[in-house]
From TrEMBL:
Pfam families: AP_endonuc_2. Residues 100-285 form the Xylose isomerase-like TIM barrel domain. This is L-rhamnose isomerase/sugar isomerase. Keywords: Isomerase, Manganese, Metal-binding. GO terms for molecular function: isomerase activity; metal ion binding. Signal peptide: none annotated. It comes from Chitinophaga japonensis. The keyword Manganese applies. The keyword Signal does not apply. InterPro entries: L-rhamnose_isomerase, Xyl_isomerase-like_sf, Xyl_isomerase-like_TIM-brl.
Length: 424
């Protein structure tokens, strides 16, 4: 299904007066409102193809109905999100869950919805039907060279699909690790991983990048071969300029200071971008901003400051993607909430009085420094985000309109109640 622009326009007209009052109230306090609106209008967050279906846990999976049955339907779902919020203009594919059989046709379909293809993701954390060798004991770090070769070949094949789709990033996450002390020689596992990555890196086209994601634990419970940003950065530095460290918010040990990690990776020119989600305990894959919105704001504050210091373009010089899974929510509603939370945190970061903050820091005026950050964080920027969306042709209230138009009901009618999208 495809949304008609008149549905959005009619809905916006109904809300126009209330929105205009709220926008005027906030905008009046923003010194350069045009700058903020332009940045918000440009900012796009990629939607992963695996987040469009209801996810499960190791205990079970409860599908919600109307889930996309094919890659084409996944593109249509992201098209719906983008029509509503005008900030979801890219889709990130996971191979082999979503193999583009006919790349020109899928590219054309995406273009119809105003979408481009973001990073392509490889998968060596599970065995596929008919696969010759198993990844039970890892992939790129495996003790058996034949398994490593198979995993390397898979990554190079993913790049090939990406080239057909117009992507220019291979995003890589390994579940490689160990479950028990003694199982693995850490140093040798790391060096085997490096050697495998060198082969993949050598196969990258000149204009491509390799994002190396890290994760502290799970599915392995004793060690992960790329466990933290230091280990990822070591690999990225050894590989070369095209290799960068990807930060997934849920992949840290509890209470890690992620904003500090981000600031330093950015300073080194080694930050690839983000996988957004939220968590309370571990890699919980919760809706962005649902647990710790202040942390999200502090991260964006470092991103904006750090990118400005390096003269980077906020929207296009880092990779922005959601990486989450939804057990109990309608995935499309969840993604709308997640993108909204990201836009809110970004808008708040754009409001920080950086000059006053630098002065307060120089003078060691701790109270003023904290006040400046919290002043921005406590500003209700939702009308600014809504105004940017309105200017882009999106809906003032995407979730409300999604429900009013009964989009999920229409998708269930079209696709059936018992559809299960590929993914975890
Ligand atoms: Mn991730």
């Amino acid at each position: 299904m495809k949304l008609e622009q008149h549905h959005i326009d009619t809905f916006n007209t109904d809300q126009a007066d209330a929105h205009a009052r709220a926008f005027a109230f906030t905008a009046e306090k923003v010194p350069d409102i045009q700058y903020v609106l332009q940045r918000l209008q440009e900012f796009q967050v990629a939607i992963p193809s695996w987040a469009l279906g209801t996810g499960g846990t190791r205990f079970g999976r409860f599908s919600g109905g109307g889930e996309p049955r094919s890659l084409e339907e996944k593109v249509e779902d992201v098209g719906l999100l983008h029509a509503l919020n005008r900030a979801s203009g890219a889709i990130s594919l996971h191979i082999p869950w979503d193999i583009p059989e006919n790349a020109p046709a899928i590219k054309a379909l995406a273009a119809q919805h105003g979408l481009r293809f973001d990073a392509v993701n490889s998968n060596t954390f599970q065995d596929q039907p008919g696969q010759k060798l198993s990844y039970k004991f890892g992939s790129l770090h495996h003790t058996d060279k034949a398994v490593r070769k198979q995993a390397i070949a898979h990554n190079i094949e993913v790049v090939k699909y990406g080239i057909e789709l117009g992507s220019n990033v291979l995003s890589l996450w390994l579940s490689d690790g160990s479950n028990f002390p003694g199982q693995l020689n850490f140093r040798e596992a790391f060096l085997r991983t490096l050697e495998s990555l060198q082969e993949i890196y050598a196969a990258l086209p000149a204009d491509w990048k390799l994002y190396i994601e890290y994760k502290s634990c799970e599915p392995n419970f004793y060690s992960t071969t790329i466990a933290d940003w230091g280990q990822s950065l070591m690999l990225a530095n050894k590989l070369g300029d095209k290799a960068l460290t990807l930060v997934d918010l849920g992949h840290h040990l509890p209470n890690a200071n992620i904003e500090q990690i981000v600031a330093l990776l950015l300073m080194e020119g080694k930050l690839a971008g983000f996988h957004f989600n939220d968590s309370k305990y571990g890699d919980d894959d919760l809706t962005v901003g649902s647990i710790n919105p202040y942390q999200l704001f502090l991260i964006f504050n470092e991103l904006v400051e750090g990118m400005d210091a390096r003269g980077m373009h906020h929207a296009s010089d880092l990779g922005w993607m959601i990486d989450a899974s939804h057990n109990v929510k309608d995935p499309l509603e969840d993604l709308l909430q997640s993108v909204e939370a990201i836009m809110i945190a970004y808008a708040q970061a754009l409001l920080v009085d950086t000059k006053a903050l630098a002065e307060a820091r120089q003078a060691n005026d701790v109270v003023t420094a904290q006040e400046i950050l919290q002043e921005a964080y406590r500003t209700d920027v939702r009308p600014l985000v809504a105004q940017a969306r309105l200017l882009n042709g999106g809906a003032l209230q995407p979730v409300q309109l999604y429900r009013r138009l009964k989009i999920r009901e229409a998708l269930i009618k079209e696709r059936g109640l018992k559809t299960v999208a590929t993914g975890l």
